Amino acid sequence: LIPESPTSTQGRWCFKRQLVDLVMEGVWQELLDSAQIEICVADWWGARENCGCIYRLRVRLLDMYENEVVKFSASPNPVLQWTERSCRQVSHVFTNFGKGIRYVSFEQYGRDMRSWVGHYGALVTHSSVRIRIRPS
Description:
CATH superfamily: Galactose-binding domain-like
Shape: elongated
GO molecular function, one term: ubiquitin protein ligase activity
Organism: Urocitellus parryii
Strand content: over 45%
Protein name: FBA domain-containing protein
Pfam families: FBA
Order of helices and strands: EEHEEEEEE
CATH architecture: Sandwich
């Protein structure tokens, strides 16, 4: 449900928020209010080889007035300079969150560890929000 939008952060904290309206995306409210679904969120991130980075993720489920109902936060260990360039995934599955969910607020934070000018911080891509129906 989140469009592909690769992002590169820089020396100071960078923030990107995407608000997904589940009803506008085609999930009917009755299904959201049932106890039969899970909301699965995931994000891929990594660092450039020549500059370490710090990455944070916060995902909040919101009601129709955008009030927070439940949240998930991740603060993985920073990637140090010259250590590796591999991508990492952060994921979470929301279950049993109750009635009234309408939005998913997907918030990414990142920065490089050297305060360099330019985009040397966390590389973020392939963010996703998926609705999964649990078998009864």
